[in-house]
Amino acid sequence: MKTWKRLGLVISLLIVLPLTSCVPQLSLQAWYGEKDLVLEPGFAGNWLLLDNDNKPQDSQAWKFVQDLDKGYTVSFEDPEQSGVREAWELRLFRVNGQLYADVVQLTSKLKDADLAENFIPGHMVGTVKLDGDKISMRFLDDEWTAKAVKANAALIKHEMVADSAVLTASSAELRDFALAHAGDDKAFAVNFNFVRKK
């Protein structure tokens, strides 16, 4: 079981994080309160992930579909690896004027095997900037958080799993934590940039 969990996580990260060595921070609870949820005009659509040179990584679009109550499903099929499919639940929320995304992986399929069903879904949080045909997302970095809670264990409720911190705080506490560190580029260091597919 542990081997499958690790394999699933590794494959998911190889697919989802092609542009960075950083890994998004995971929490057990959502980062939002229901009253914070928003839908953004222009957010849904087909998007291309940009590489470090701001060029589309490939021609396969990431689909952002508003098909959830106050939320979106984001999906991607790898054109170079047949049978590799990924899907996430994404909720946008706004706190003090800052737009955030709470993201949970729904499926991670390699051919007929759903790897995501082998591990507990965690919530990732990122700041979001939607500017016409461009989306920029910056996610809270797992390595930064682990160092921060090792230096100050009372910073936020968590459990250490190997060298990673899994946040166990309430949604309200998580929201406050995200708000306090959203302006720190070292904390929110996992970057994803998209351009709308024409």
Task: Write a structural description.
With 198 residues, the chain is of the alpha+beta class. The protein has one domain (2-196). Helices cover 18% and strands 40% of the residues. The strands form two sheets. Strands 3-4-5-6-7-9-10-13 form an eight-stranded antiparallel barrel. A hairpin with a 2-residue loop joins strand 7 (98-110) and strand 8 (113-114).
- The dominant shape is globular
Q: Write down how many β-strands occur, each being a DSSP E stretch of 2 or more residues.
A: 13
Number of domains as seen in the coordinates: 1
Question: For the CA atoms, what is the radius of gyration?
Answer: 16 Å
Mean of pLDDT: 85
Number of helices: 3
Largest sheet: 8 strands, antiparallel, barrel
Overall SS class: alpha+beta
Uncertain ranges: 1-21
N- and C-termini, Cα separation: 43 Å
Helical residue percent band: 10-25%
Beta-strand residue fraction:
35-45%
| Widest sheet: strand ordering | 3-4-5-6-7-9-10-13
Order of helices and strands: HEEEEEEEEEEHEEHE
Quick summary:
The protein has helices spanning 2-16, 142-151, 171-181, and strands at residues 26-27, 37-38, 45-49, 62-68, 71-77, 84-95, 98-110, 113-114, 123-131, 134-139, 158-161, 164-167, 190-196.
